[in-house]
Amino acid sequence: MSVNTEEIPYDFELERLVEELKGVKKVLIQLPDGLKKYSYFIVDSLSRSLGNIEIMVSIDGGYGACDLKISEAKLLNAEALIHFGHTQYSLQEVPIESGKLRIIYVPAFYRGSIPESSVDDLAEALKREGLQRPSIVATVQHIRLIGELKAMLEKRGFHPIVTSPGRLLTGQIIGCDYSAVILSKEADSVVVITGGLFHSLGVSLSFEGPVFQIDPYSGRVGDLRKDKERWLKRRLAEMYRARDSSRWGIIVGTLTGQYRPSIVERLKREISSRGMKYYLFASSVLSKDNILNIDSENIDAYIVTSCPRIPIDDFTESPLHKPVLTPGEAISVLEGRIEVYRFPW
Amino acid sequence: MSVNTEEIPYDFELERLVEELKGVKKVLIQLPDGLKKYSYFIVDSLSRSLGNIEIMVSIDGGYGACDLKISEAKLLNAEALIHFGHTQYSLQEVPIESGKLRIIYVPAFYRGSIPESSVDDLAEALKREGLQRPSIVATVQHIRLIGELKAMLEKRGFHPIVTSPGRLLTGQIIGCDYSAVILSKEADSVVVITGGLFHSLGVSLSFEGPVFQIDPYSGRVGDLRKDKERWLKRRLAEMYRARDSSRWGIIVGTLTGQYRPSIVERLKREISSRGMKYYLFASSVLSKDNILNIDSENIDAYIVTSCPRIPIDDFTESPLHKPVLTPGEAISVLEGRIEVYRFPW
Question: Using CB atoms, which residue from A76, A94, A280 is nearest to B252?
Answer without folding.
Answer: A76
